[in-house]
Design a protein that fits this description.
Strand 5 and strand 6 form a beta hairpin. The longest helix has 30 residues. This protein is of the alpha/beta class. The chain is globular. The chain is built from 42 helices and 24 strands. A seven-stranded parallel sheet has the order 13-14-12-15-16-11-17, with helices on both faces. A seven-stranded mixed sheet has the order 20-21-19-22-23-18-24, sandwiched between helices. The protein has a six-stranded mixed sheet with strand order 1-4-5-6-7-8, sandwiched between helices.
Length: about 1000
């Protein structure tokens, strides 16, 4: 007997279906015998109404009913066959020898011609047990939806579990052969939806028109989801059978599909940004299916930039039944497919377009533009992870080869400024976005929990280190010694000390003993190392613990004998490459290659599978870059980061831990040994915020691109002029000898070499900037208006500059083969650096350093936390944040001056990030900038300007007399309380306008007056 409160809810929902949605009410079928998932009487009426002949009607009904009542195979297989019958029609012929005709049990193209109905309390009898769904949805007599309702005080999970148990063989599994949508709801929690065999955690909430709040959420979303046209569209275009799992689209996927359909219909490309873990690959499949079915002569080329992604995408399309598909194994084969009419779907690596090699890219592009390939059909190009692929020459090649194609980019990360400049040029504007915070709220992914851990390191004996270093490098000149120090004195090499790595290994082992999911062996972890060497070193350390045979290392390295053929330096020690080679050959010695895979590929495939399916037996994967990106990268519970990361790579990496899993997973945990807190929060902020380019029109995108190209061209011209200016004083003819004389002097006299060092350093920096500017511009020369002669000039200059740089470096002895020093320097670091136990740290907040930075940069750095002092990047970021805060704080007091300070700060940050200045020069310039910011005014301020307000007026007006006159006029015109009185304000503003004719400038003057309350 139905609960009285539930009866009230059920009556209301029946009224909603019949009165508001226009469904027919079949009745209460509690006592009705022989209820079926195919009510043949209703189906027959519909098919006759559609005009099918009696013989065809009977044969179609018989085939549908036979499958509906079949018990062969499992539910998934039967349901998939039924879906195909309903979607693609029943093939039948009236009599033997006659032509086959297709009978459609549902009219998908004309939703209004179908008969939508509901029945309640539908008793389903079997030999053992009976079940009675609350409401069943029918289309033309075929049961396509089931709704279980509970009263508001009973958790909606009860309804979901009721649906799940109904699908068991001992209850009513047979009835679900035709079911497409399974619904559960109550008055307090609203509505959840899934399909056959959907686990409880994957039942979804619909989300649309969130501002609407007039009805129960249950009623609201039944109206949205079960409106006749929407329901039919959802089933027809949204159902995916994916490798044994039937899936329906999440709301963001459905609405993205609708938006993308509009873009495709008008042949406009664009970018789909759906955050990591939200089903981007299935979005690609749904859109691909729709295009192939609805756009005449359409073909799809799916481009990825990694072999593993290429394999994964091909597999997903195969799993959903797309059989007319091929995988291009070479550039030639790809071109051949594109020029043929089949296959309709091609998978390929984007680098197949660049198979010509770097040296003749320009010729290759010109050939393609002059003789574009004659592709067959209407081509749509899907590019996966489009933020990674579309830089430099490759986008030019793609556009040249497929000049009539529509490009659609898919990314799990937003296009940051450096990516947007080329990605938007290829793809256009955003089609649809679904951000990280939206996915967390919707329960599509788990939220992230961050923990920073610091491991203090101390130098045990500076004197011994200096003594040992001098002994080992006695035969080297100053430059060569500095090169060794530069390489081995970096923070990264210090962080790779054996002592520190042992502490991290112990830390991770402790977590596996104490942290819930790790301790109970339901979750596992990924450790991100900074290099292949460090990954191998971590692996070697874990082999001496209980993790032996329960951890693996997965990197891009594949051991080849030639890797170490020139590594032997004659010493009885291993270089880094020799160490890596030994680790890999040892771990692969018992691996047998499978199929056409190498031993390394077989090993990786095995450990990834074990990591996914048996977390108790494969607890930890040690990686560098592999497995951090791509939709097939394995999820985990914890990620330990011991690598400098930022932007896309950082966000994709931390999203390894945010995937849904068993019910005991509450968060994805990030453990950070690199003090990346600011970068983690910045990345998440970017991935959850509105983007500047989200709402752009095509015209606005084009304007942006033109601005970007002009800036790139200006940068290149300036870079070339800089190098030319440095080389201007080289005697003619400008041959090798004269270049050496100018930049080195007499190379046999150490004093002359040292005396000319500043020239060489300036040359090296200028050439590096030219290389970067040229690379940035390489794909856009023609778009910037350069002719072939000008482009060749830039390219020739690049080759000339590189030749000059190499000449000068060799002549001055400023080159060194560092290989022979690797083992010695590694020994030095491992011997004399001692690491302390890890400790949890907090992010850097409110560290006031400005006064210290102005007086003593050394003292300022010494005042920072011990864990920060040795990290140049962390030190720099702290100083920059403090200076920036001061600028923001004081900006309104003197807008023009602090705008200038902000610009100087940004230029200094850019110079540091681009490595255009060394660290010492950076600290000097930062100290100077700090002094200027603290002082709040220029050096050459006239003495008459003896207050902050007068100085601000002078900065704005750039005229001492005008600033003084304005100041006096305001003092004369102002009355007490003028800031709160509109009439008094007008008098002050008029006094300013009488002196400053420009309205905009006068307004800025008033703003300065307004803010300086102590003076006016």
């Amino acid at each position: 007997m139905i609960n009285p409160i539930e009866r009230i809810t059920q009556n209301r929902i029946i009224q909603l279906f019949t009165k508001q949605l226009g469904y027919t009410y079949y009745g209460n079928w509690e006592e009705r015998p022989n209820n079926s998932n195919v009510e043949q009487t209703y189906l027959k009426v519909f098919l006759h109404k559609q005009g099918y002949a009696e013989a065809l009607v009977n044969k179609a009904i018989a085939e549908v009913a036979q499958l509906a009542n079949s018990s062969s195979g499992n539910l998934y297989e039967r349901n998939k066959k039924m879906y195909n019958l309903l979607r693609y029609g029943v093939k039948a012929r009236p009599e033997l020898g006659e032509q086959f005709d297709t009978v459609f049990p549902i009219d998908w193209q004309n939703w209004e011609k179908n008969d939508f109905a509901i029945a309640e309390e539908v008793t389903l009898n079997n030999t053992e047990h009976s079940r009675r769904p609350d409401i069943v949805l029918y289309i033309n007599g075929i049961a396509i939806g089931i709704l279980e309702l509970k009263r508001g005080t009973v958790d909606i999970a009860e309804s979901i579990r009721q649906n799940i148990s109904n699908q068991q063989g001992k209850f009513s599994e047979w009835f679900f052969t035709t079911t497409q949508v399974v619904l559960a709801g109550n008055n307090t929690q609203g509505l959840r939806y899934g399909t056959i065999e959907t686990p409880e955690k994957y039942y979804l909430s619909w989300k649309e028109d969130e501002q609407e709040n007039t009805d129960y959420k249950l009623d609201k979303y039944l109206q949205k989801l079960c409106s006749k046209e929407r329901l039919l569209d959802l089933i027809y275009n949204g159902v995916i059978f994916d490798a044994g799992v039937k899936k329906l689209p999440r709301p963001h996927q459905y609405f993205c599909l609708k938006e993308a359909q509009d873009f495709v219909k008008r042949r406009e490309g664009g970018i789909i940004w759906h955050t990591q873990g939200s089903g981007k690959s299935l979005m690609m499949v749904m859109l691909g299916k729709w295009i192939l079915e609805n756009i005449p002569n359409s073909r799809i080329a799916i481009m990825t930039d990694r072999t593993e992604l290429d394999d994964q995408i091909e597999r997903v399309f195969n799993d959903v039944g797309e059989t007319d598909i091929a995988k291009a194994k070479s550039g030639k084969e790809l071109m051949m497919y594109l020029q043929s009419s089949r296959p309709r779907l091609i998978c390929s690596l984007i680098h197949k377009f660049g198979s010509k090699g770097e040296t003749d890219y320009d010729t290759f592009i010109k050939e393609l533009k002059d003789n574009p390939i004659q592709t067959q059909g209407d081509i749509f190009v899907f590019v996966d992870e489009c933020h990674r692929s579309q830089g430099g020459k490759l986008n030019e090649i793609m556009k040249a080869a497929l000049h009539n194609a529509v490009f659609i980019g898919f990314t799990g990360t937003p296009l940051l400024k450096q990516d947007a400049k080329t990605s938007q040029q290829v793809f256009g504007r955003y089609i649809h976005t679904y951000k990280f915070n939206e996915a967390v709220v919707d329960g599509v992914v788990k939220d992230l929990m961050y923990e920073g851990r610091s491991i203090e390191q101390n130098l045990t004996s500076q004197a011994k280190v200096d003594q040992w270093f001098e002994a080992k490098t006695a035969a080297l000149n100053d430059f060569q010694k500095n090169e060794i120090k530069k390489k081995w004195g970096t923070m990264q090499n210090v962080l790779s000390s054996k002592s520190r790595m042992e502490k991290i290994v112990a830390d991770i082992l402790m977590d596996f003993s104490t942290k819930s999911r790790l301790k109970h062996e339901t979750g596992n972890a990924i450790l991100v190392a900074s290099s292949i060497y460090e990954a191998a070193k971590y692996y070697a350390l874990f082999l001496n613990t209980e993790f032996k045979n329960k951890c693996a290392v997965v990197t891009s390295y594949n051991p080849m004998a030639r890797d170490v053929s020139i590594e032997d330096t004659g010493a009885d020690t291993d270089t880094d490459k020799e160490f890596i080679y030994k680790i890999y050959t040892d771990l692969l010695k018992d691996v047998s290659p499978k199929g056409n895979k190498s031993k390394t590929e077989t090993y990786e495939s095995n450990v990834k599978e074990q990591f996914r399916k048996e977390p108790a037996r494969m607890k930890l994967l040690i990686v560098v870059s592999k497995l951090l990106t791509g939709f097939d990268a394995p999820p985990c519970s914890y990620i330990y980061i011991d690598k400098k990361m930022q932007d896309h790579t950082l966000f994709q990496a931390i999203c390894r831990v945010n995937r849904l899993d068993t019910d005991d997973k509450d968060y994805g945990y990030i453990v950070d040994y690199m003090e990346l807190f600011g970068k983690v929060t910045d990345a998440i902020d970017v991935y959850t915020s509105e983007l500047d380019s989200e709402g752009f029109t095509n015209e606005e995108v084009n304007i942006q691109l033109k601005d970007r190209i002009k800036a790139a061209a200006d940068r290149l011209e300036v870079a070339m002029e800089t190098v030319e200016a440095i080389c201007e004083n080289v005697d003619s003819p400008k041959n090798d000898l004269n270049y050496i004389r100018f930049f080195c002097g007499n190379t046999e006299i150490a004093e002359e070499l040292k005396g000319n060092e500043y020239k060489r350093m300036a040359l090296y920096k200028a050439i590096v900037e030219y290389i970067r500017a040229y690379t940035n511009m390489a794909a856009d020369f023609e778009n910037a208006g350069y002719d072939a002669k000008s482009i060749l000039r830039f390219k020739t200059k690049l080759e000339d500059y590189l030749s000059v740089r190499e000449l000068i470096r060799k002549a001055s002895g400023e080159t060194i083969d560092l290989k022979s020093f690797e083992a010695d320097m590694r020994f030095l670091i491992d011997t004399y650096i001692r690491a302390e136990e890890s400790e949890k740290i907090t992010p850097f907040d409110d560290i006031s350093l400005l006064e210290l930075m102005e007086t003593s940069m050394t003292d300022a750095i010494a005042s920072m936390p011990a864990s920060v002092r040795g990290n140049k990047e962390a030190v720099s970021e702290i100083m920059e944040n403090n200076v920036r805060s001061k600028i923001v704080e004081d900006h309104l007091l003197d807008p023009k001056y602090f705008d200038k300070m902000s610009l100087l700060l940004q230029e200094l940050i850019e110079a540091r990030k681009r490595e255009m200045i060394d660290y010492q020069e950076y600290l000097i310039r930062m100290a100077e900038l700090t002094k200027m910011v603290n002082k709040g005014q220029q050096e050459d301020i006239p003495k008459a300007l003896n207050s902050k307000a007068k100085v601000a007026l002078y900065h704005l007006l750039e005229d001492e007399q005008l600033a003084m006159v304005c100041n006096e006029a305001v003092h004369y015109a102002k009355q007490d309380g003028f800031r709160e009185n509109m009439m008094k304000q007008r008098k002050v503003k008029k006094a300013i306008s009488d002196i400053v004719a420009d309205d905009e400038l006068a307004s800025k003057v008033y703003q300065i007056i307004e803010i300086h309350k102590d003076e006016y």
